[in-house]
Amino acid sequence: MTAAATRPRQRNLTATVLALLWPTLLLICLIPGVLSNLFAPLSAGISPETGDRPLWQLTLTHLGMVFGAELIVLLIGVPLAVFVTRPDRAALLRLTETITGLGQTVPTIAILALAVPTLGLGLPPTVLGLVLYGLVPVVSNGIAGLLAVDKGVMDAARGVGMTPFQRLMRVELPLSLPVLMAGIRTSTVYNVGTATIGAALGAGGLGSLIINGLSQQNTGLVLIGAVLAGLLALSLDALLELFSPNGR
Known about the structure:
Helices cover 78% and strands 0% of the residues.
C-alpha cells in the first residue's frame, strides 16, 4: 500500500483517538472514587460564584454553551449563506462578505463586553458573543462552498428538470459540504476557547478554573483549565472530522 493511500487511514485513526480522548477522561472522572484525590484540590480553587461545582459539571456547562451557540450559528449561518449566493443578490453577497471579513478582526472580549449592557451577566451575553463570533467562519465558508459549485453541474441539474429547491438540496449543499464543514469545525474550535472568557461574566464552564487561578495567583488552576479546554477543542474538532466528507 502506498504512502498516499495510508494517509487518509492515519488521519481517521488520529481523529478517532482524539475524539474518544475527552469522553474517556470525563467518564473516568464520573466514576465514584476514581481520581478523586487528584481533582479534590480543584474545589478549593472554585469560587462561591461557581457553586463549588465539580470538574464534570464545569465541563458540561462549557459543552452546553458551545453546542447551544453552534446550533444557533447553523440555523442562521447556513440559510444566510444560501440566501446571499442566489444569482440576483450580488450586491448583498458583497456586503455580507465585507461584514464577515470585518467580523474576523473584532476582538472576542469586545463582542462579549458590548452584549453585557443589554443582556446583563451570565449565559445570555456569553452565548450571544459565541454566536456572533462563530457565525463568521460558517457564513464565509458556506458562501465559498456554494460559489465553488461547478456551473456545468448546475446546468445539468436544470436540464433534468430539478426545481431550485431540489438543486439546492441535492446538488449545491452536498457539493459544498466539505468547505462548509471546515467552517463549522473552525467555528467550534474558536468557541471552545471563547467560552472560557465567558466565565468572567459569570457563565461558568472551564474558564472558571482559569479566572479563579488568576485571582488566586494559582498557576496550577490556570494550567488545568487551559489544558482541559484545549483537549476539549481538539476532541470536538476530531469528532467533526469523522463526519466530514472524505474525512477532511
